[in-house]
């Protein structure tokens, strides 16, 4: 069975390689491990998990406190994740709300444009700080070279955007 995974499903399968997790734990793990460069919302996680279970890529564990249920990746899920890793990524799809609004700059007044740029600069400065913190944490921690490379890319990206 060939299953084409979306990025969110693939991210969840990748995280589940570390062991069984509930939906809430997956949200937290995604924020911690991927949050500096990839966003996964709670609603996305809870939408994808039943679909992954229905496809046989994850299985439900026994209910825990407050009806939480851990999910674990199946052998089919591991194969689907490995296949996804080898697929071409396709073009980078930038959905930047600042650029979208700047594209309609003629419809803004000067004050709106100034606030738009100022707010975007502030957000990217905050993101740069988060990426730098992740780099420092990863250099001190477990030595996850791939996570470190992603965080370092985030630093370079934010610096380029701010420039």
Looking at this protein, list some descriptive labels.
7 helices; two-stranded antiparallel sheet; Arc Repressor Mutant, subunit A
Please provide the count of β strands.
Answer: 2
Q: How many separate domains?
A: 2
| CATH classification class of the largest domain | Mainly Alpha
The structure class reads mainly alpha
- Percent helix, as a range, is 55-70%
Rg, Cα atoms, Å? 19 Å
Spatial shape: globular
Low-confidence blocks of residues: none
Average pLDDT confidence is 89
Proportion of residues in β-strands: under 5%
CATH H-level superfamily of the largest domain: Winged helix-like DNA-binding domain superfamily/Winged helix DNA-binding domain
Q: Which assembly state applies to the chains in this document?
A: single chain
CATH-defined architecture of the largest domain: Orthogonal Bundle
Order of helices and strands: HHHEEHHHH
| Count of helical stretches | 7
Describe the structure.
- It is a single chain.
- The protein is mainly alpha-helical.
- The protein has two domains: 7-86, Winged helix-like DNA-binding domain superfamily/Winged helix DNA-binding domain (Arc Repressor Mutant, subunit A), CATH 1.10.10.10; 97-162.
- The chain is 63% helix and 4% strand.
- The chain contains seven helices and two strands.
- The protein has a two-stranded antiparallel ribbon with strand order 1-2.
- Helix 2 (23-34) packs across helix 3 and helix 6 packs antiparallel against helix 7.
- The protein is globular.
- The chain starts with 6 loop residues before the first helix and ends with a helix.
């Amino acid at each position: 069975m060939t299953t084409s995974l979306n990025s969110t499903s693939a991210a969840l399968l990748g995280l589940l390689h570390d062991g069984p997790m509930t939906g809430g734990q997956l949200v937290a793990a995604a924020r911690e491990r991927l949050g500096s460069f990839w966003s996964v919302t709670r609603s996305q996680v809870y939408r994808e998990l039943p679909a992954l279970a229905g496809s046989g890529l994850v299985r439900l564990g026994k209910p825990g406190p407050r009806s939480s249920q851990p999910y674990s990746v199946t052998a089919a899920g591991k194969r689907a994740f490995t296949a996804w890793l080898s697929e071409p990524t396709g073009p980078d799809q930038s959905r930047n709300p600042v650029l979208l609004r700047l594209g309609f700059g003629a419809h803004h007044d000067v004050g709106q444009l100034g606030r738009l740029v100022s707010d975007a600069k502030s957000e990217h400065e905050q993101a740069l700080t988060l990426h730098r913190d992740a780099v420092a944490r990863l250099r001190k921690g477990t030595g996850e070279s791939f996570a470190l490379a992603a965080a370092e890319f985030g630093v370079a990206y934010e610096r380029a955007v701010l420039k």
